[in-house]
From TrEMBL:
One of its GO terms (cellular component) is cytoplasm. This is tRNA threonylcarbamoyladenosine biosynthesis protein TsaE. It comes from the Bacteria. It comes from Alteribacillus persepolensis. It is found in: Cytoplasm. Signal peptide: none annotated.
Length: 157
């Protein structure tokens, strides 16, 4: 199942991610794809907010992963600089199978490590301020999540 939403501001992106974040469960994996500046970190901030995380969320570009504690642990990963073998060696798979929520930027670099069920999110830049956010639910768990999300039509507060 696939849904598409438009975001007209960083706040809209955060709001949509908060809606999704309230529906997340232990072990859920979300992949984020989009060019630099598309809103991936803003999206992750919304997930973190929904999980009750008060800590400042920023991109883990140079640290590979940042862990935050909330209602569920949040594992925010940026695997752009990793090869699949390196990701295995440092044990990223353990986080994907763990008790938290994994949000992975550039997940196409580690496809063989990803679980069969996941929420694939693509953020595209339409204008300087407008983003098109495509949500693709893979597996029953995330098809159900998107059906629940579909009940909330607008993105803006």
């Amino acid at each position: 199942m696939q849904l598409e939403r438009k975001s007209y501001s960083p706040q809209d992106t955060i709001h949509l991610a908060k809606q999704i974040g309230t529906l997340l469960q232990p072990g859920d994996v979300l992949t984020l794809d989009g060019e630099l500046g598309a809103g991936k970190t803003h999206f992750t901030k919304g997930i973190a907010s929904a999980l009750g995380i008060k800590e400042m969320v920023n991109s883990p570009t140079f640290t590979i992963m940042k862990e935050y504690e909330g209602r569920l642990p949040l594992y925010h990963m940026d695997v752009y600089r990793l090869e699949e073998e390196e990701a295995e060696e440092i044990g990223l798979e353990e986080y994907l199978e763990g008790d938290g929520v994994s949000v992975i930027e550039w997940a196409d670099k580690i496809t063989s490590l990803l679980p069969p069920e996941k929420l694939e999110i693509t953020l595209g830049r339409e204008t300087d301020t407008t983003r098109v956010i495509q949500l693709h639910g893979v597996g029953d768990r995330f098809i159900g999540l998107l059906k629940e999300l579909e009940k909330h039509e607008d993105v803006s507060d």
